[in-house]
Amino acid sequence: MEFRDNKAIYLQIAEYVCEHILLGKWKADEKVPSVRELAVEMEVNPNTVMRTYELLQNKNIINNKRGIGFFVEEGAIDNVKNYRKQQFIIDELPVVFRNIYLLDISFDELENQYKTFVKENFNA
Amino acid sequence: MININNLNFGYSKHKPLFKNMSMRLSNGHIYGLLGKNGAGKSSLLKNLAGLVYAQSGTLDVMGFNPAKRQPALLEQICFIPEEFYLPSVKIDAYLKANAPFYKNFDHQYFATLLKEFDIPASNKLIEMSYGQKKKFIIAFGLATQAKLVIMDEPTNGLDIPSKAQFRKIMASAMTDERCIIISTHQVRDLDNLIDTVIMLDENDVALKASVEEITAKLTFKKVKEVDDSIFYAEPSLSGYNAVMPNYHHEESKLDMELLFNAILAEKIKFKPLFS
């Protein structure tokens, strides 16, 4: 995975896991990769993935079945959305707003762009 | 795992390399050992492996003094030096001669590692390239199942795919029982593998802190202008890459190269944060 420079690695891995859950690749009650498996895939220290999994447990996105592994929580999708929404509003929206303001982009134009984007990327 | 107490060491009496150095290292970590050329990274590693001797002070590695070179300790140490010699034999002959020194040597794991590194098992050691030799000794070292893994510039000479392979192998080799110490100048190759940074400078440990602790206390980010709150900054394309105290609990990504330069340049500013 390509990591960005501006955010802690454990949070970027949390985003990766959340993305998989939102896109339905990892479903409720299914097992997620073990700490070691994900560390190998991401080429990072297993302690970093452990930190990610602790965070996601606190957010009720995954749970730890002792001795078996980590599983996607029942209501994970809602919890991911809540968590990601907060993150998005705090971290990313100000940057987007700033550009919208500076470039004088109208909400109508924005809406059209948004609809096209959703159509092209998610077929919705 | 490792306890260093008031270590004094140097290659000549008049030029000490370490003065009263003390440090504790525990298992379950990958330590990144950083320092300028000549700061003593390789010498510290050699002290731990019993390849050189302290002038005074004590070194305790898993309950042993490494200077005594007892087999019970040496079979638990895997040392990958920067410069190494390999005899003119094939891989299986090398294994036959050397693997028996390590009672936990895992032949199957060794074969897997060779395969992952793309090295044909029938190769003669001296006919291989430097990078292939390096991958061979890394595979041998890890297959010993040693609890203390010491690597001096392991990514030197590895090609781009091998570096990624190396990171994957190290991520899977890190267990709660193992202590892994990697010295490197190529921090960009390894920065996501390292969980604790040890920096040597001016005959002592200039910094020893986990990535979590460092990023809790410091923030690394791009800024447009440099002001007094910034400890250290380097010009970049769109402003400056800066290090400053983490006033607002930001979760930034540790920039190990920037931290390294910052500590060399502004050691006094960082000292109160990490004592």
TrEMBL record, chain A:
InterPro entries: Tscrpt_reg_HTH_GntR, WH-like_DNA-bd_sf, WH_DNA-bd_sf. One of its GO terms (molecular function) is DNA binding. It comes from the Bacteria. The keyword DNA damage does not apply. Residues 7-75 form the HTH gntR-type domain. Keywords: DNA-binding, Transcription, Transcription regulation. Gene3D superfamilies: 1.10.287.100, Winged helix-like DNA-binding domain superfamily/Winged helix DNA-binding domain. PANTHER family: GNTR-FAMILY TRANSCRIPTIONAL REGULATOR, HTH-TYPE TRANSCRIPTIONAL REPRESSOR YTRA. This is GntR family transcriptional regulator. It comes from Pedobacter psychrodurus.
From TrEMBL, chain B:
Keywords: ATP-binding, Nucleotide-binding, Transport. Pfam families: ABC_tran (PF00005). This is ABC transporter ATP-binding protein. The keyword Transport applies. It comes from the Bacteria. GO terms for molecular function: ATP binding; ATP hydrolysis activity. Residues 2-227 form the ABC transporter domain.
